[in-house]
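Here's what a typical entry looks like (ActVA 2 protein):
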Amino acid sequence: MAELTASQLDYLAGQRLGRLATAGQDGRPHVVPTSFRYNARTHTIDVGGHHMATTKKYRDVQATGWAAIVVDDLVSVDPWTPRMLEIRGRASAVPEGGSDLGPGFGDAFIRLEIGTVNSFGI
């Protein structure tokens, strides 16, 4: 399991929206915007949303056990100054406890282990 740098953790703390990528059993990709939190206790990215247990992303994680999240923004458009953090790794569909993680989380959530980390501008 990879570790995030202090700068990467600071960046995540200032963001609330990411894009979660999963693949279905048929191998076809699926990408959706979603809320997330870095969980300092488990050193994971916890991905939330309302009615998570009924979503395709949740079913995909149940089926494959893998996911990736990208968090990005623009510091400036002139000059063009993007920032991006991508985290890929094993993922678990967790049926309960998400509502304890804060706003934007229902009971079920996805827990993403920090495997591969790519970033720029951070």
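The longest strand covers residues 80-94.

More examples are in the samples folder.
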